[in-house]
């Protein structure tokens, strides 16, 4: 974790959206604090979390919200489904519509298939998500908030693409 720069060059607002129980809160605490909380809803009352990363020698503070209805002003979105819950993937198209209706046109969207550690319970093949992401122009990652696999990579990619869009 990079910590405590005196000077922040940019603040990027990012929203984490998707069906209930897909792991939005856990992804956020994994990225912001490198934690996975078994007591999941310990974040009640916290509106957003932040983490500052270095992109092209600039300090970029990601301000990340996992509460619904925060799309306004967001530069990026993590659209999360659960690879073990087909229904959460079937709803992804609706979440994209929601974003296109309520967020800025230039919003960068990453599709995230979370709980990749539960390989035996998988019901959403990677190829289905790859195809959807390509059709919709989304970045795509499979992650595990539990193991941490790909979580930093996915958030960093999103932040880098936002940086490319705005600079
Ligand atoms: P949210 O409602 O989308 O914010 O989902 P939560 O972050 O509260 O997670 C819902 C449940 O899934 C909790 O019991 C988490 O412990 C569990 N969970 C979240 N991410 C993962 C993951 O990557 N792997 C596994 N195995 N469980 C996860």
TrEMBL record:
Molecular function per GO: GTP binding; GTPase activity
Superkingdom of this protein's organism: Eukaryota
Family as reported in the entry's similarity comment: Belongs to the small GTPase superfamily. Rab family.
Protein name: Ras-related protein RABA3 isoform X2
Shown residues within the full chain: 14 to 180 of 226
